[in-house]
TrEMBL record:
Provenance organism: Alteromonas genovensis
Swiss-Prot/TrEMBL keywords: Membrane, Transmembrane, Transmembrane helix
InterPro entries: AAA_22, ExeA_AAA_ATPase_DNA-bind, P-loop_NTPase
Gene Ontology molecular function terms on file: ATP hydrolysis activity
Xref: SUPFAM superfamilies: P-loop containing nucleoside triphosphate hydrolases
Pfam families linked to this entry: AAA_22
Keyword Signal listed: no
Parts of the chain that traverse the membrane: 278-296
PANTHER family noted in UniProt: GENERAL SECRETION PATHWAY PROTEIN A-RELATED (PTHR35894:SF7)
Name the record gives this protein: AAA family ATPase
Domain ORC1/DEAH AAA+ ATPase, residue spans: 42-170
Length: 299
């Protein structure tokens, strides 16, 4: 691969949610502030939604790493659980033994006792669920029952839901209106702007230990256009772009490499094809201008 060729310490555009690459752009920074504010106020339910590929899981991991020792984070990345499986998974995150049948019968009481114990120590439990749009109606009901656990002064458990926009549709259903009414803080992650993508690409290249000039700035607006501002698509296109550059042994990407990467990425290709003549003409003109500017800079 191109890691050693470009002298990277890490792969810059991996799809793994590595918090070292967290880019403090407005949408993710604002979402993190909303969540932390809600947690500091001991609010029961907090919801963050965003389209596929907008960085919800990375934000989720960043939140967990950002929490102080006062919080006990219980992370459930897989919401495809029955109500009993959800209870067991939550109990395990709290460090409760769940092996025997008798222990499972008393699981709800054991969870409550553990939460009370944490509260007595001055600590707060947080249940963080990723891909929450996949929760069943029965599992949502279990979350409602969990949210009922409280003292006279505060909640024993705070719940943060990360999900795709379908989560909002699910919560609009009358069957879960009690949960919907308990969600006091919400945030919707938007996609990145063109300027944010420019910064994002440079940030990831530099964070990985490479040269920001590997992907020239004149190419980045075209990455922004074809990706529609979706971080995951930006990563995929840039990864394929660098693969193409590496394959030719070059030191920086050109419009040729970008076209190859875009056409090899399904969602990006679909965005380009309806207006491909205008797109490729614009890319050719900008590439020519970019090359001319770099030539002048080298004189």
């Amino acid at each position: 691969m191109y890691k050693d060729f470009f002298h990277f310490n890490e792969m810059p555009f991996s799809l793994t949610p590595n918090t070292d690459f967290f880019c403090a752009l407005a949408p993710h920074n604002e979402a993190l502030k909303v969540i932390l504010t809600a947690l500091s106020m001991s609010e029961g339910f907090i919801k963050v939604t965003g389209e596929v590929g907008t960085g919800k899981t990375l934000l989720c991991r960043k939140l967990i790493n950002h929490l102080s020792d006062r919080f006990v984070a219980c992370y459930l990345p897989n919401p495809y659980l029955s109500p009993d499986e959800l209870r067991i998974a939550f109990a395990k995150e709290l460090g409760i033994k769940t092996g025997k049948t008798k222990e499972r019968v008393n699981l709800h009481n054991n969870i409550e006792e553990k939460l009370l114990s944490l509260k007595a120590e001055g600590r707060q439990a947080i249940l963080i669920i990723d891909e929450a749009q996949a929760l069943s109606w029965d599992s949502l009901e279990i979350l409602r029952l969990f949210s009922n656990l409280e003292t006279e002064k505060s909640k024993l458990l705070q719940i943060v839901l990360f999900g795709q926009p379908e989560l909002n549709d699910n919560l609009d259903n009358q069957r879960v209106r009690q949960i919907r009414q308990r969600i006091t803080f919400s945030y919707s992650l938007r996609k990145m702007t063109r300027a944010e993508i420019d910064y994002y690409i440079g940030h990831r290249l530099v964070t990985a230990g490479g040269d920001e000039g590997l992907i020239p700035r004149y190419l980045r607006p075209f990455v922004a256009f074809t990706s529609s501002g979706t971080p995951r698509l930006v990563n995929i296109v840039c990864h394929k772009l660098l693969l193409s550059v590496y394959g030719e042994g070059k030191k920086a990407a050109t419009s040729k490499h970008l076209v190859s990467a875009i056409l090899d990425t399904e969602d990006c290709r679909r965005r380009v094809l309806p207006q491909k003549r205008l797109f490729f003409l614009s890319l050719a003109l900008v590439a020519a201008l970019g090359t001319w500017q770099m030539t002048l800079g080298g004189l």
